[in-house]
Design brief:
two-stranded antiparallel ribbon; globular
């Protein structure tokens, strides 16, 4: 009996040691990638009265860059996520890329997606904060190749498609679709055939990002951490640290349980020969107020 218990105890010890080694591997792999390969330093947002504490509602800005490199081009996708762990909810809002607004740091008004070309992620973050009047706590930039690779790394995402269309050699029928990386990229980039233009395109982007979050949060995804890190180190940049990653996992995973998508309504106008998406002041205030309430800033 004692020999049997000793054997079980020895086996348990081996399992614990192996688990600890795996956790250490994950930690140091994440630390090397985030701190050495893709990290961009940024101070706490000036739109917060005090620093972000673990468990506070927080925001993440996702920037999809229309270039092969991660530090050039324009932000083809500008999506803000706010996560509230208290009520386990997440809001998702896209800023249409042609939105005319102040480009913070240049003293001019231009299309918001030009901010990345002028001043990279930092200028884009500053301009988004000024436009929405909420803090951006964290940001991720990823280029098209990286986006496609991430989708493939999670074995694709499933979406419920409401509009049948073809784009870039792909046919998208109505109903549930499972998309690989190349298909997902095409699915999120089409807007000319959509009667809702950028708004319809934004809905598709949000659906794909939601699917990616669900897949990446699954337990089976942990075994592929090396694949994800390789992709991010080559194609992404962020101000997220290793400790932040584990803080996300501890406090914010369940915030994806209830999702709400928001739309910024506006109209098109041509100014000095350039077409812009014009968002009325009252619409911008409405969006800002909802996000502030979700972040519990008041």
């Amino acid at each position: 009996m004692k020999k049997g218990l000793f054997a079980i105890g020895g086996l348990l010890l081996i399992v614990l040691i192996a688990a600890a080694a795996f956790i250490a591997y994950i930690y140091f792999s994440v630390d090397r990638t985030l701190n050495d390969d893709m990290y961009i330093d940024r101070d706490d947002s000036p739109w917060r009265d005090s620093g972000l504490e673990a468990g506070d509602p927080m925001s993440i800005l996702l920037l999809g860059i229309d270039a092969e490199g991660s530090e050039a081009g324009r932000s083809d996708t500008i999506m803000l996520l706010t996560l509230n762990p208290d009520d386990e909810s997440m809001k998702m809002v896209n800023i249409p890329r042609d939105t005319r607004t102040e480009i913070v740091g240049r003293g001019t008004e231009d299309k918001i997606n030009h901010a990345y070309a002028f001043g990279g992620a930092e200028m884009t973050v500053d301009s988004v904060e000024a436009f929405l009047e909420v803090p951006v706590d964290y940001f991720f930039t990823i280029n098209m190749d990286g986006f496609e690779a991430l989708i493939n790394a999670v074995d694709g995402v499933t979406v419920d498609n409401e509009l049948a269309f073809s784009y870039s050699g792909h046919e998208f029928t109505e109903g549930e679709l499972h998309l690989d990386g190349e298909e997902a990229l095409a699915y999120t980039r089409m807007r000319s055939e959509d009667p809702r233009g950028d708004l319809g395109r934004n809905d598709r982007q949000q659906a794909v990002v939601a699917g990616l979050i669900d897949e990446a949060a699954s337990l089976s995804s942990i075994t592929r951490i090396g694949d994800y890190l390789d992709i991010l180190s080559e194609h992404a940049r962020s101000n997220v640290t290793t400790d932040d990653v584990f803080m996300f996992q501890r406090h914010y995973t369940d915030a994806r349980n209830t999702r709400e998508t928001m739309h910024i309504e506006g109209t098109g106008d041509t100014i000095d020969g350039v077409w812009y998406y014009i968002v009325p002041a009252e619409e911008r205030e409405r969006i800002s107020r909802e996000l502030q309430e979700h972040l519990q800033l008041h």
